[in-house]
Amino acid sequence: xxxxxxxxxxxxxxxxxxxxxxxxxxxxxxxxxxxxxxxxxxxxxxxxxxxxxxxxxxxxxxxxxxxxxxxxxxxxxxxxxxxxxxxxxxxxxxxxxxxxxxxxxxxxxxxxxxxxxxxxxxxxxxxxxxxxxxxxxxxxxxxxxxxxxxxxxxxxxxxxxxxxxxxxxxxxxxxxxxxxxxxxxxxxxxxxxxxxxxxxxxxxxxxxxxxxxxxxxxxxxxxxxxxxxxxxxxxxxxxxxxxxxxxxxxxxxxxxxxxxxxxxxxxxxxxxxxxxxxxxxxxxxxxxxxxxxxxxxxxxxxxxxxxxxxxxxxxxxxxxxxxxxxxxxxxxxxxxxxxxxxxxxxxxxxxxxxxxxxxxxxxxxxxxxxxxxxxxxxxxxxxxxxxx
Length: 388
Description:
alpha+beta; Endonuclease III, domain 1; Nucleoside Triphosphate Pyrophosphohydrolase; 2 domains; seven-stranded mixed β-sheet
């Protein structure tokens, strides 16, 4: 631990001195000119770039976090069609917001948007603030989102640092320290602030993110097409710019087996709502329980349906197996039809629960893995009807 601390201090001091010297010799005016000329000519035609509406900018910035542009485009339009203003969003039911968000992932973003909209309507008379400081007063809006909104909507000179910007800066200035170190991340943020073009802060921030997304990509960067390749230290001084930023060795991703029960009673399926915290907070779910290989999923389902929901049930026919990857772990879902016998859930069994007909499941927000189960159930229903 002591060695790691000493190493961190030495690395920080070295990086500080290195960046200070390289930035002094860096032609910032030429850099600004080239990257903005390129952006003005080559930027992608995206719907959120055609508006000055701060609400729409806010929605786009939240959706774009950890999600690719191609996926966001369709969701952005659909979301605004249902919730065209902050007032519409604030007055909606959370289930409706999560339903529109269904499939986009990272559902805490949708919950935070919803809570922030309610705060704005209640405490700001429905007016979304345009300054960094005021945006930070809103629960659910952090520094990154506040900086992005303030710079794009009102040209406030705030640097934005996401994965694309980090990659561009690491290559531009040949930063070889691991970006997993807090000291390295601080220096990248400081560098981003120093090279920010304040006269067009919003356009500049979008230009750097655009560069990282389209040319300065993680693998096989298109350096010969880059507007700033002549100023890029990684391109000029390394054989392989793609090796930057430096990353930690990938850790083994944990894997979990989950027994999932489609519990039937007189043509209805039991579903439960998750607690608000966590990755899938607020989403609806089929009963699911992790298990070790020493157990069978059928035994786990019968035992845990009783322990959790006070249901006596029989695990019956196997439906399907689903492999699904989340950001930090993987799961295999073993899905079975289950037959309800008797029992009633206690009050603390779930935030909410219901018995729904198969055709009604489409009205509830489910995560991606559960959508595959629902599709399978729909197909089974169609085939059963065709046989009749």
